[in-house]
């Protein structure tokens, strides 16, 4: 989740009274943005790992996935669901997946040859079901099918929409506190209700 804004309202809210809802100041000071990389466990409904920081590079994603793997080093298979963002099909992630394989793999040169030649060749390699870590990419324009998007909606509704953050550090702290609170009090598997029927006639 990129571009999470640390917004500080210039005036405090006017509290609710009988017959009147809270009134919120529309002017704000923007202190910058943060990026959240989160891993949602569909079996438990918890966030297994959350990384909040300034950049959103392919190295950040690969480091996050590396930490996720370290949590379950004895697992024989890892399945990750991601949308088609360019960092999800990066050289760094391909190298991480290749390093998990028992036999060395010749990756080629980025932009020139082999598996690293293009985003298409990299995504095909990452989606290979024979690898120890398999990435399942959602179809284009269908990232809503990934359950982490449901969780991002919860984060927006419960924390970000009405939040007041005096700095990017305050925003980062509040997000990580919310993740801990969510895991402790609200985490449960989501019930997927879509039956596969066409959404329109």
From TrEMBL:
Residues 10-172 form the Tc1-like transposase DDE domain. Pfam families: DDE_3 (PF13358). GO terms for molecular function: nucleic acid binding. InterPro entries: RNaseH_sf, Tc1-like_DDE_dom. This is IS630 family transposase.
């Amino acid at each position: 989740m990129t571009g999470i804004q640390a917004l500080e309202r210039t005036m405090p809210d006017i509290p609710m009274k009988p017959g009147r809802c809270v009134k919120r100041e529309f002017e704000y000071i923007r202190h910058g943005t943060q990026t959240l990389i989160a891993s949602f466990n569909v079996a438990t409904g918890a966030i297994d790992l959350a990384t909040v920081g300034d950049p959103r590079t392919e190295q950040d994603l690969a480091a996050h996935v590396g930490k996720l793997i370290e949590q379950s080093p004895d697992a024989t298979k890892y399945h990750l669901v991601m949308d088609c963002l360019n960092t999800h099909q990066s050289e760094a992630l391909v190298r991480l997946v290749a390093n998990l394989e028992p036999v060395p793999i010749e990756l080629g040169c980025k932009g020139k040859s082999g598996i690293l030649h293009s985003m298409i060749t990299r995504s095909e390699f990452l989606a290979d079901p024979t690898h120890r870590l398999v990435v399942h990419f959602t179809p284009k324009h269908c990232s809503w099918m990934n359950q982490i998007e449901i969780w991002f909606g919860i984060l927006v509704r419960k924390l970000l929409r009405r939040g007041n953050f005096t700095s990017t550090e305050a925003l980062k702290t509040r997000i990580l506190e919310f993740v801990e609170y969510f895991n402790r009090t609200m985490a449960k598997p989501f019930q997927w209700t879509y039956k596969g029927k066409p959404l329109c006639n």
